[in-house]
Amino acid sequence: PVTRTAEIGASREKLPIVAEEQKIMEAIHNNPCVIVWGTTGSGKTTQVPQFLFEAGYGSHDSSTPGIIGITQPRRVAAVSMAKRVGEELGQYSGKVSYQIRFESTTSKDTAIKFMTDGILLREISQDFALLNYSIIIIDEAHERSVNTDILIGMLSRIVDLRKKMSSEDSEVRPLKLVIMSATLRVSDFLKNSHLFPAALPPLIQAEGRQFPVTTHFARRTERDYLEEAFRKVSRGHRKLPPGGMLVFLTGQNEIKSLLKRLHDTFRSSNRSAVDSMRVQLSASEGPLEVDDLELGTAEDADIEEEDSEDEDSEDEDSEVDFVGHDGEDEDIAFDIGEPVTASLTVHILPLYSQLPTKEQLRVFEIPPDGSRLIVLATNVAETSLTIPGIRYVFDCGRSKERVYDQSTGVQKFEVNWISKASAEQRAGRAGRTGPGHCYRLYSSAVYERDFVEHTGPEILRTPIESLVLQMKTMGLDNVVNFPFPTAPERSSILRAEKLLKNLGALTPTGRVTQLGHRLSIYPLSPRFGKMLAIGAQHDCLPYVIALVSGLAEGDIFVPENQLELNPKERGEDEVYTNDDRLEDSAREQRQKNYNRARAIFSKNDPTSDALKLLSAVCAYAYAQDGDAFCRQMFLRSKALKEVSQLRKQLSDIVRANHPQSIGPYLSRLPTPSPKQLKALNQIVAAGFIDQVAIRADLAPNPPISPRKPQRAIDVPYLALSPSSTNTTSGTTSSDPAIYMHPSSILSPLSPKSLPQYLIYSHLQQSAPSLITSSSSSEKQ
Ligand code: ADP
Ligand code: MG
């Protein structure tokens, strides 16, 4: 039996999950898979592994000798939970280990192993039957990360496999699976007979949060939530009784900036933290994880436009804690006890996933005497973690989320409202070790109106080609029939496989090639990944990076048919002129300027839209005043700013993975040589190898055209591999021919001088007539 300290014993007794021990253990005994639901703080993560340990799991002389494995979505959670469970296990503390990237404390004594889900995925690829384990616990399954979903799918099959193996070989024991969730949104697992064909798993519930948390909504939702966080945390520190603070922000830049301001404002016990703060993993620390990339947002302060004017809303009623209405309401919300004496210093620590794990773990250390711990965190701290002594949570209500643009294949990270479920999780952090308060930096009206109930599974926001490639690199051959908790569309999986084969990332039988492994590192459509992977010839890589950034962004040119519109209507912020209507002469002048700008960008290769784009991206980098340059050259400045960020980030990724292939980042590149231009055209062609069209009159069976085309855009082309072309609308018109888009560099040419082959970036069904479907073309 485990001998626990009196203190631990007493705190365990209060945990709701402990009352359910017998029920949980019986369910695990009688079923191969069990789902455990208990709100945050009910004791799932710390207690369930101990129940299992005490029942003999992980012990050599039992019928369940294999290790107890528990996955966590984040490194810092794996380490800190292993530590806590070790402490609770008294004389058996040496039996608890953790393993994260680059770090492991496992030994032959290990009975309980905490690890990130990435580690378990890798172990599965080495031993698919996971013979070292007797039971796997997937924790925080409600987060629905891609890794968690894939793990659950795989484990449902591994459980079957182990059952079969054990019936054939008495040496092999069956494997158990426990899925743990902090929200009741588990029906994707519970009612999924594809996932659990034999029998649906039972659900065991443990209710009740440990300590009460009082929630305070803001009266107003300020757009500048960082400023608001500074204001409220400062005021809170002055007014609130002792107790740690946990502040939820969206990213490391915000955290850094608030950290600095708080340090500058208050007497700080760890001033050196500001200067010594490590912000980014260096390339030498190993390959970047998707988690570590923040593509698409250079500044965290990129706040979405939102309605922040809800002063007049009916908020007051819902804010029971705000007693007065004389403008001092916030002070009253903070008036919950003896205020702090001015002598209390602050001990401020950052917490975000790019921070080295060792630094992250500092939040668990006891802060210096006479100081208040203030942790500034991303949603790393939203689940799993118990930071001792946290009494106050400040929640900005936003998080940085992965969003994926189907049409360009780019994934970005955007700041958006969190879900109501996340807001509850965040508030719950204030009640882990005592009663607490949660200060929300948004009004209850915004919460009700703009917060969704739950965030959908990440897998549906992930580029499907990247997902397929990732699964294939893990050795999963049959992605289409994989038992996803929430499956992406079958047809899009098949289309992705086909594209990956066309690009040479998969063999015809569906195995990952060397090229496939190389391009799996880029957070981009595999087309662009391939262009980067083969881009190192003739010193082309910096150009390929610039080109891919431009292609990924999409529309950087102001289209000709929008010249007449005023900038607002075009979706631009900058103002060209105050007159909405231009005089004829001015219009003429503008058209002239437009043509001149296009001609300048077309100089390098008058037949390639891709190189025209490259010229524009490269020229922008030379401009002193980017916005003025964009106005003058009819470019969309917002888009080009993003392209510049992407260029820099892609360069960093390439350098981190292949330092020898690329020099230091140069935004201003020299004009490419003719040899390089040729290579660049070939690289584009390789990325779009399945999107080649032949001029219809040269096809083996040319369609009979009623009359001779007068304009380039009327000349029919035929796609060489029609099945792989995905029209935006997904429909196929009766006319198999495709036509050049009027915005193409080739459209002013005479029909006679059009090339025999075209490479196109995408097809677009032109509404409403079926007669003129058109294609935007990237000419080779
Ligand atoms: P769950 O996984 O259900 O959210 P946990 O098992 O992580 O809950 O934690 C249950 C409780 O155990 C916490 O609410 C807290 O009171 C206590 N606890 C967990 N970790 C620590 C720790 N490091 N220090 C102090 N108390 C802790
Ligand atoms: Mg937990």
Automatic annotation (TrEMBL):
Cellular component terms (Gene Ontology): nucleolus; ribonucleoprotein complex
GO biological process, one term: maturation of SSU-rRNA from tricistronic rRNA transcript (SSU-rRNA, 5.8S rRNA, LSU-rRNA)
Keyword field contains Hydrolase: yes
UniProt keywords, alphabetically: ATP-binding, Helicase, Hydrolase, Nucleotide-binding
Region (Disordered): 288-324
Signal peptide (UniProt feature, chain positions): none
Compositionally biased tracts (Acidic residues): 288-320
Catalysed reactions, semicolon-separated: ATP + H2O = ADP + phosphate + H(+)
EC numbers: 3.6.4.13
Domain Helicase C-terminal: 302-475
GO MF term list: ATP binding; hydrolase activity; RNA binding; RNA helicase activity
Root EC class: hydrolase
Domain Helicase ATP-binding, first and last residues per copy: 25-202
Family: Belongs to the DEAD box helicase family. DEAH subfamily.
Name the record gives this protein: RNA helicase
Organism this protein belongs to: Endocarpon pusillum (strain Z07020 / HMAS-L-300199) (Lichen-forming fungus)
Lineage: Eukaryota, Fungi, Dikarya, Ascomycota, Pezizomycotina
